[in-house]
């Protein structure tokens, strides 16, 4: 949502972020997207095509969702992100603070405290901070 100015869901923002990390030499990149986004009215046709392209390339993984009657039942994608970061000792790129989940497990608290990379977009420029853990913490290169 950051790339879409918190007004629209921007699949292009996901692609820009993926390309940023690829350009830095990172190959193990996973973006979790709720499966219902593939057919949501708010996801443009171009966005749907791009989601499928990124999925086929192995970068986007769809979290389970199903429709029961008129209700969508979707798994909580934040848990997928946290679980993979714990399992792979990876970082999470998100502006979410995961306040609702950090107390569930000590391992979640560790990821959110030490391995959460927040960012901003300026137009089509993905911009993480040079000091992701504050000005006395490691540089971005050290963090990654």
TrEMBL record:
Check the record and name the PANTHER family matching this protein: LD08718P-RELATED (PTHR12876:SF35), N4BP1-RELATED (PTHR12876)
Q: What is this protein called?
A: RNase NYN domain-containing protein
Q: What region holds the RNase NYN domain?
A: 2-142
Record's GO cellular component terms: cytoplasmic ribonucleoprotein granule; nucleus
Tell me the InterPro entries matching this sequence.
Answer: RNase_Zc3h12_NYN, ZC3H12/N4BP1_RNase_Reg
Q: Name one GO molecular function term.
A: mRNA binding
In the UniProt record, the signal sequence range is none
Question: Which Pfam families does this UniProt record tie to the protein?
Answer: RNase_Zc3h12a
């Amino acid at each position: 949502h950051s790339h879409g100015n918190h007004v629209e869901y921007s699949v292009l923002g996901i692609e820009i972020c993926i390309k940023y990390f690829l350009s830095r030499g990172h190959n193990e990149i996973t973006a979790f997207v709720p499966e219902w986004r593939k057919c949501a009215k708010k996801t443009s046709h171009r966005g749907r095509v791009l989601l499928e392209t990124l999925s086929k390339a192995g970068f986007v993984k769809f979290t389970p969702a199903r429709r029961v009657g008129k209700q969508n039942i979707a798994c909580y994608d934040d848990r997928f992100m946290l679980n993979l970061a714990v399992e792979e000792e990876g970082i999470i790129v998100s502006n979410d603070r995961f306040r609702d989940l950090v107390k569930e497990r000590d391992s979640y608290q560790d990821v959110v405290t030490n391995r959460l990379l927040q960012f901003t977009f300026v137009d089509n420029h993905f911009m993480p901070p040079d000091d992701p853990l504050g000005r006395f913490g490691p540089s971005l290169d050290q963090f990654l």
